[in-house]
Amino acid sequence: MIPLREGAREALWQGREVIAGAVVLALGLWIASFGGVVLVPLGLAVAALGAGWVWTALRRLRFQATGDAPGVVEVDEGSITYFGPTMGGSVGLSDLAEVRLLRMRGRAVWRLKQGDGQALLIPTQAAGADALFDAFASLPGIDLGAVVAALEGPTGQGQAVVPDIAENRVIWRRRGLGMVRQ
Q1: Helices (H), 109-174
Q2: 84-88, 135-139, 166-170: lowest mean pLDDT where?
Q3: Domain 72-173 CATH (choose: 1.25.10, 2.30.29, 1.10.40, 1.20.1740)
Q4: Which of 55, 63, 54 is nearest to 129 (CA)?
């Protein structure tokens, strides 16, 4: 095994999906470089697959938060569950009516609201919270670029909605079924 510093090893492990996509992209370009009626389209198709993989992996990598927030998030069979030290809960993706990102006391928190009004708060830095990216991707009409952009920094700084809440941003809202369009 090649000796690596702990930080370098961790960075490579976090970027493993991006690296794998880049390898597939390079493999596709290498196949296409041989030319011919069969190898050029095949190589370009493999390269396109690799490019899509890199694009998705980069978004997922930007979504991952590093930190030490309490609790554990589990996404299983269309259900998001948060096990926290003092509170927790579960919400089904089919029952989800709204996703918000709150910034409270210096921490970013997902607020998942059901159609009946109940809400589940999940710190973005909780263990397993990176699995929410794939769960959010299954929501109809969600803009994953907006999700990633919301995590990267607050907008409308200085306009507090509630004294301890620095940002209250709607990321996604289900249309229809009694929900008001905005």
Answers
A1: 132-137, 144-152
A2: 166-170
A3: 2.30.29
A4: 63
Do 166 and 103 touch, CB atoms closer than 8 A? yes
C-alpha dist (Å) from residue 155 to 5, 61, 104, 152, 158 = 36, 21, 14, 10, 9
Per-residue pLDDT tens digits for 128-145: 888 898 899 899 999 888
Nearest partner of 60 among 129, 10, 139, 126, judged by Cα = 129
Give strand ranges (E) for 28-162.
72-76, 79-83, 88-92, 96-104, 107-114, 119-123
Name the residue ranges covered by the structural domains of the chain.
Answer: 6-63, 72-173
For 177, phi and psi rounded to 5 degrees?
55, 45
Q: How far is CA 182 from CA 4, 164, 168, 173, in A?
A: 52, 26, 16, 10
